[in-house]
Amino acid sequence: MTNGGITTCQEFAGRTFYGGAMTQRRLLEGLGVSGAEEGAYRALLRHGPATLAELAVDTGGSAAAIRRMLPRLEDLGLISRLAGRPLRVIATPPNVAIDVLAARRQEEITHSRAAAAALLAESAGRGTGPGPEEVLEVVNGSDAVARRYLQLERNAEHEMMVLVHPPYAVDVSDDGENLLRAARHRAPTRGIYGPLAFEVPGMLEHTRRSVADGEQARLGQVPVKLAIADGRTAMLPLVSESGRAVESALVVHPSALLDALVGLFEVLWQAAVPLRLSEDGGIGGAAWLQQPDREVLALLTAGLKDEAIARQLGLSSRTVQRRVQAILERLGAGTRFQAGYLASRDDLLG
């Protein structure tokens, strides 16, 4: 869950995937708590009220180091001192401590946003448009690309427009990260899924959840990976080579180039066909289509081969081949392409 854009303690209690690599995050890192400070706090939670010497043993440090850290831990609201001698400290209950830290961070963010607006007004006073170096931003490294994309997604207020094509900067098979993203307030999204979008295991389930959360999804041609937030910021791969698409990215700010990218998305959107995946796994359409035939037709229309459909649906290739053949016969289609055309014409995917 989030509270005014601040990530709460539950959201930190897991692992985050960036570019397919898994990293263990410190639980309180996002609230301004250092690793040493968090280690001391968690040790105190496990131990209960403790002297500095006892806490030093639990953390593997020294009592002197713990003593130097005390003012900071008290300022963060993570501990308090008990009366009496020798000096003993007790951990603040996590629900209380983290709520206070989150509220403090929220206040800092609110102040920073107000400052950003004031600074933007100052830059607008130049009376000239943005220079070339202000239009384009280059992001290098898969981790940095993933973080920048998530930032773009979080900051979108009105709409996200996405051309979906693998590889993906954020691991779509990570249920923990997907739940965190779903829990955050997200702007309405329109997504166009290309023929290769569902080649990645877990992508169909990820898309189903997104559609259930309100995303408008369509199947169509995707010439390039692209994400546009609020029509004001776009992000796309820096290089066209598919295997390196998440190693670096180009972020485009308001400019004629951005206008062209928005126009490209709108043209592709008009040409794409709807994909409406229901919560039980089916898609809307003719009554004769039974599960999983409904999804087979949707993935077939998206351009997937039998092997890729089998991986997504957990079926054998032979089973998929039989179902595809049955769908072709029922539609009166001689080819897979014709089946996709007939499904679109007859609104079987709508």
From TrEMBL:
<protein>
    <submittedName>
        <fullName>LuxR family transcriptional regulator</fullName>
    </submittedName>
</protein>
<feature type="domain" description="HTH luxR-type">
    <location>
        <begin position="282"/>
        <end position="347"/>
    </location>
</feature>
<dbReference type="Pfam" id="PF00196">
    <property type="entry name" value="GerE"/>
</dbReference>
<dbReference type="InterPro" id="IPR002831">
    <property type="entry name" value="Tscrpt_reg_TrmB_N"/>
</dbReference>
<dbReference type="Pfam" id="PF01978">
    <property type="entry name" value="TrmB"/>
</dbReference>
<dbReference type="InterPro" id="IPR016032">
    <property type="entry name" value="Sig_transdc_resp-reg_C-effctor"/>
</dbReference>
<dbReference type="InterPro" id="IPR036390">
    <property type="entry name" value="WH_DNA-bd_sf"/>
</dbReference>
<dbReference type="InterPro" id="IPR051797">
    <property type="entry name" value="TrmB-like"/>
</dbReference>
<dbReference type="InterPro" id="IPR036388">
    <property type="entry name" value="WH-like_DNA-bd_sf"/>
</dbReference>
<dbReference type="InterPro" id="IPR000792">
    <property type="entry name" value="Tscrpt_reg_LuxR_C"/>
</dbReference>
